[in-house]
């Protein structure tokens, strides 16, 4: 049986956006923080990974949100590495309120890279066995986001040019995964963001963004409550996303 890690947290004001609810980038931050803490306690954390010349790379997210917790609320964040094969691993994250109701569920797909060559490699079992994941030949696929419709029939596309700052870069020397959520949403109108709630976010990471890159974030609404997103540098697509929205209550 795989190991489940959990921690109790209070939603601080600086975790939240202007709505007073846990922001989307912070959802990703808290999830990743839980997995880092779990692996660190098992002796297979960042220090051990870097010593072995290996690193984890996030490939996909499927985030389902029932309700974003509010400032001051007590929550529990859990993570469970569930299955892996030779090259990929699935890990779940869940956010619960004090009654035990699941507020946010995240399915994620991971791979491992050689830090020097920056290339994918097979999973190093030294970092898998302590997690007690179920080993399988084939992993189920996560849903991939829809791509922008650039045809004449497609809806208009809004775009915003972005240059990563020093504070966007993590210890892997590229833009932190949580910042992609922020980048995706920059072209979305603030009034829409404030009056709507994301219910499902599907993300696929294709290529890391580095400090010296200029990228363009694009959004296309294919319906009143459905948006498609792309972050790209020249002809290279760094990441894509798809978001289902609901009107805020």
UniProtKB/TrEMBL annotation:
Annotated ranges, domain Acyl-ACP thioesterase-like C-terminal: 159-246
GO MF annotation: an example: fatty acyl-[ACP] hydrolase activity
Keywords, alphabetical: Fatty acid biosynthesis, Fatty acid metabolism, Hydrolase, Lipid biosynthesis, Lipid metabolism, Transit peptide
Transit peptide found in the keyword field: yes
Domain annotation Acyl-ACP thioesterase N-terminal hotdog: ranges: 4-130
Keyword Lipid metabolism (UniProt): yes
InterPro entries named in the record: Acyl-ACP_TE_C, Acyl-ACP_thioesterase_NHD, FATA/B, HotDog_dom_sf
Protein family according to the UniProt entry: Belongs to the acyl-ACP thioesterase family.
The protein's name in its UniProt record: Acyl-ACP thioesterase
Source organism: Oenococcus sicerae
């Amino acid at each position: 049986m795989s190991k489940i890690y959990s921690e109790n947290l209070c939603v601080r004001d600086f975790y939240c956006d202007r709505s007073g609810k846990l922001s989307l980038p912070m959802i990703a931050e808290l999830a990743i923080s839980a997995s880092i803490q779990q692996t660190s306690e098992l002796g297979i954390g960042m220090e051990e990974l870097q010593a072995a010349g290996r690193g984890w790379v996030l490939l996909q997210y499927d985030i389902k949100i029932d309700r974003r917790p509010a400032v001051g609320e007590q929550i529990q964040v859990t993570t469970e590495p569930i299955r892996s094969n030779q090259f990929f691993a699935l890990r779940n994250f869940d956010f619960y309120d004090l009654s035990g109701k699941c507020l946010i569920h995240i399915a994620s797909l991971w791979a491992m890279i050689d830090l020097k060559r920056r290339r994918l490699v097979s999973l190093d079992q030294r970092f898998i066995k302590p997690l007690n994941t179920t080993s399988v030949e084939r992993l189920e696929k996560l849903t991939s986001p829809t791509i922008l419709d650039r045809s004449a029939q497609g809806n208009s596309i809004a775009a915003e040019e972005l240059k990563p700052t020093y504070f966007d870069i993590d210890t892997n020397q590229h833009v932190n995964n949580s910042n992609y959520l922020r980048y995706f949403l920059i072209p979305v109108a603030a009034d829409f963001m404030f009056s709507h709630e994301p219910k499902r976010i599907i993300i696929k990471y294709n290529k890391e963004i580095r400090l010296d890159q200029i990228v363009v974030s694009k959004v296309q609404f294919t319906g009143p409550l459905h948006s498609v997103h792309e972050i790209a540098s020249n002809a290279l697509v760094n990441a894509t996303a798809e978001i289902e929205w609901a009107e805020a209550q």
